[in-house]
Amino acid sequence: MNATALLIGLGPLLGWGLYPTIASKIGGRPVNQILGSTIGTLLFAMVFVMVQGIALPTGHDLIFAIISGIGWASAQIITFKAFTMVGSSRAMPVTTAFQLLGASLWGVIALGDWPTTAAKLFGGLALVLIIVGASLTVWSEHKDAGNARLLRRAVLWLAVGEIGYWAYSAAPQATKLSGMQAFLPQAIGMVLVGIVYAIFLALRGEKLALTESISYRHIFSGLFFAFAALTYLISAQPDMNGLATGFILSQTSVVLATLTGIWFLGQKKTSKEMRITVLGLVLILVAATVTVLI
After folding, report:
1. d(C-alpha 99, C-alpha 91), whole Å
2. Which helix (H) or strand (E) holds 173?
3. What family is reported (predicted)?
4. pLDDT value of position 41
5. Phi and psi of 258, rounded to 5°?
6. Phi and psi for 113 in degrees, rounded to 5?
7. pLDDT at 194
8. pLDDT more than 70, % of the chain
9. Which residue pairs, CB below 8 angstroms and at least 24 apart, start in 138-145?
């Protein structure tokens, strides 16, 4: 692995690692966050395809790429809601764990991954590690019934959100598009969700997010997501880090997202909770490495 490939591979560490913290810091409602983030992603994608001279796909490929973006944005709305319940430092490891579980199980069931008995054994152990690691990151030293109920609600919401993240990853597999070709259509799907969600809430009596300035401040956070998505697509290319190594490097973002949520958003943990959280993050990263190397 050369230095250039490594630096590109660590792009998602910064982009996806800082994205949830920046979005939470800017504030606003989940609808403001998703609307601004998706607009920022669309602007980034438009500039990228113009510079690269990539044409917009058509037909079947365009539809599935847009569905992919719709899946991500729908799931991200739920993730933002979980942030308001328990904070990004608790929600991010859990949603990462669900995404790893979903991707691994989809690979085994639909794509024929882990074909040998040994692979299934190590893969199963890795999935157990992911669950244990996620559980450790939300462990609380001082039990509180109200907080426990809120955490259970957040975890259930994040489990439902995995359906959207699964669609984000799985839908492009029904096309012949490369990741870079799918980038702009995915961004279009994301923006469509943000706009529809804003209109839906307005019809229910809430203020229209399209008219709120805070929505457009979230364009800044969307640029971080787009940067991470693009550097991951480049990193995963065979002449760079490859899919397996690129995926592992991208998962390091959960560490930065969790720690910056604690350090910069006032999501306090005791020293014991902090040690156990770090242990949980390590287990998630080790398990992610195992799932792509077996």
Report:
1. 12
2. none
3. Belongs to the GRP transporter (TC 2.A.7.5) family.
4. 96
5. -70, -50
6. -70, 165
7. 97
8. 98
9. 138/86, 138/90, 138/93, 138/94, 139/273, 139/276, 139/277, 139/280, 140/273, 141/270, 141/272, 141/273, 142/270
> First and final CA of the chain: distance in angstroms?
20
User: Which distant-in-sequence residues (6+ apart) come within 8 Å of 123 by Cβ?
Assistant: 104, 108, 113, 114, 290, 291, 294
Q: How many CB atoms lie within 10 A of CB 242?
A: 16
| pLDDT at residue 290 in the model | 84
pLDDT confidence of residue 145: 66
Calpha distance 2→24 (Å, rounded): 35
| Number of other residues whose CB lies within 10 A of the CB of residue 63 | 16
Q: Of 108, 126, 91, which Cα lies nearest the Cα of 21?
A: 91
Q: Which residues in the chain land under pLDDT 50?
A: none
- Looking at residue 92, its amino acid is M
Encode pLDDT of 88-108 as tens digits. Answer: 888 999 998 888 888 788 878
Q: Are 169 and 106 in contact (CB under 8 A)?
A: yes
- Here the tokens at position 277 are 């959280």
CA distance 232 to 234: 5
Q: What angle do CA 207, 209, 213 make, to 5 degrees?
A: 110
For residue 174, what is the DSSP state? G
Rounded Cα distance between 83 and 90, Å, is 8
What's the pLDDT score for residue 39? 97
Residues, the chain, total?
294
Burial (CB count within 10 angstroms: exposed 0-12, middle 13-18, buried 19+), residue 274: middle
Quote the pLDDT of residue 235.
84
